[in-house]
Protein backbone atom coordinates (compact mmCIF):
# COMPACT_ATOMS: atom_id res chain seq x y z
CA UNK A 1 0.00 0.00 0.00
CA UNK A 2 1.25 3.48 -0.83
CA UNK A 3 0.53 6.50 1.36
CA UNK A 4 0.79 9.92 -0.22
CA UNK A 5 0.77 13.11 1.82
CA UNK A 6 -0.47 15.85 -0.48
CA UNK A 7 -0.62 19.60 -0.22
CA UNK A 8 -4.22 20.38 0.66
CA UNK A 9 -4.49 23.30 -1.75
CA UNK A 10 -2.25 22.43 -4.70
CA UNK A 11 -2.51 18.63 -4.53
CA UNK A 12 1.27 18.34 -4.91
CA UNK A 13 2.66 15.12 -3.37
CA UNK A 14 4.82 16.09 -0.37
CA UNK A 15 5.72 12.58 0.80
CA UNK A 16 5.17 9.13 -0.68
CA UNK A 17 5.64 6.10 1.55
CA UNK A 18 5.22 2.40 0.81
CA UNK A 19 3.48 1.44 4.05
CA UNK A 20 0.09 0.65 5.50
CA UNK A 21 0.17 3.53 7.97
CA UNK A 22 2.33 6.29 9.38
CA UNK A 23 1.98 4.99 12.91
CA UNK A 24 5.28 5.15 14.78
CA UNK A 25 6.89 7.17 11.95
CA UNK A 26 9.49 9.79 12.85
CA UNK A 27 8.14 12.96 11.28
CA UNK A 28 9.81 15.24 13.80
CA UNK A 29 10.62 18.68 12.41
CA UNK A 30 8.87 17.82 9.14
CA UNK A 31 7.16 20.60 7.22
CA UNK A 32 3.67 19.22 6.79
CA UNK A 33 2.00 22.59 6.59
CA UNK A 34 -1.20 22.39 4.58
CA UNK A 35 -0.78 18.62 4.16
CA UNK A 36 -3.87 16.48 3.69
CA UNK A 37 -3.66 13.94 6.51
CA UNK A 38 -7.39 13.20 6.70
CA UNK A 39 -8.02 9.84 8.35
CA UNK A 40 -4.29 9.10 8.62
CA UNK A 41 -3.11 6.47 11.09
CA UNK A 42 -0.61 8.51 13.11
CA UNK A 43 -0.71 6.38 16.27
CA UNK A 44 2.54 6.87 18.15
CA UNK A 45 4.07 9.02 15.39
CA UNK A 46 6.77 11.51 16.39
CA UNK A 47 5.45 14.84 15.14
CA UNK A 48 7.43 16.91 17.62
CA UNK A 49 8.37 20.34 16.28
CA UNK A 50 6.51 19.55 13.02
CA UNK A 51 4.98 22.40 11.05
CA UNK A 52 1.33 21.41 10.80
CA UNK A 53 -0.07 24.89 10.19
CA UNK A 54 -3.32 24.55 8.29
CA UNK A 55 -2.95 20.77 7.96
CA UNK A 56 -6.12 18.71 7.58
CA UNK A 57 -5.97 16.17 10.42
CA UNK A 58 -9.71 15.53 10.44
CA UNK A 59 -10.56 11.96 11.47
CA UNK A 60 -6.86 11.16 12.01
CA UNK A 61 -5.91 8.68 14.75
CA UNK A 62 -3.44 10.54 16.97
CA UNK A 63 -3.35 7.99 19.81
CA UNK A 64 0.03 8.29 21.53
CA UNK A 65 1.40 10.75 18.94
CA UNK A 66 4.07 13.18 20.15
CA UNK A 67 3.09 16.71 19.14
CA UNK A 68 5.39 18.57 21.54
CA UNK A 69 6.37 21.88 19.99
CA UNK A 70 4.31 21.22 16.85
CA UNK A 71 2.64 24.23 15.26
CA UNK A 72 -1.04 23.37 14.84
CA UNK A 73 -2.18 26.90 13.95
CA UNK A 74 -5.31 26.70 11.80
CA UNK A 75 -5.07 22.88 11.65
CA UNK A 76 -8.35 20.99 11.27
CA UNK A 77 -8.65 18.43 14.10
CA UNK A 78 -12.37 17.82 13.65
CA UNK A 79 -13.21 14.18 14.20
CA UNK A 80 -9.60 13.37 15.16
CA UNK A 81 -9.29 10.65 17.76
CA UNK A 82 -6.94 9.65 20.54
CA UNK A 83 -4.93 10.94 23.44
CA UNK A 84 -1.67 12.56 22.41
CA UNK A 85 1.26 14.39 23.94
CA UNK A 86 1.25 18.15 23.38
CA UNK A 87 3.46 21.03 24.55
CA UNK A 88 5.33 20.56 27.81
CA UNK A 89 4.35 16.90 27.92
CA UNK A 90 0.67 17.69 28.51
CA UNK A 91 -1.60 14.89 27.32
CA UNK A 92 -4.71 16.00 25.47
CA UNK A 93 -7.63 13.80 24.64
CA UNK A 94 -9.77 14.69 21.66
CA UNK A 95 -13.40 14.71 22.75
CA UNK A 96 -16.01 14.46 20.03
Describe this structure in words.
The chain has strands at 2-7, 13-18, 35-36, 83-85, 91-93. With 96 residues, the chain is mostly beta strands. Strands 2-1-3 form a three-stranded antiparallel sheet, with no helix packed on it. A hairpin with a 5-residue loop joins strand 4 (83-85) and strand 5 (91-93). The N and C termini lie far apart (29 Å). The model has no long low-confidence stretch (mean pLDDT 83).
Q: Whole-number average pLDDT?
A: 83
Proportion of strand residues:
15-25%
- The N- and C-terminal alpha carbons lie at a distance of 29 Å
Question: What general form does the structure show?
Answer: globular
Structural class: mainly beta
Spatial order of the strands forming the largest sheet: 2-1-3
Outline the low-pLDDT stretches. none
Largest sheet: 3 strands, antiparallel
Radius of gyration: 12 Å
Q: Please bin the fraction of helical residues.
A: under 10%
Key terms:
single chain, 96 residues, mainly beta, three-stranded antiparallel sheet
Describe the structure concisely for a colleague.
With 96 residues, the chain is an all-beta fold. The protein has no helices and five strands.
Amino acid sequence: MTIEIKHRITGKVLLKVEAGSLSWADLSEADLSWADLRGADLRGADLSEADLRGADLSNADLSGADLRGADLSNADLSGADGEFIFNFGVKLKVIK
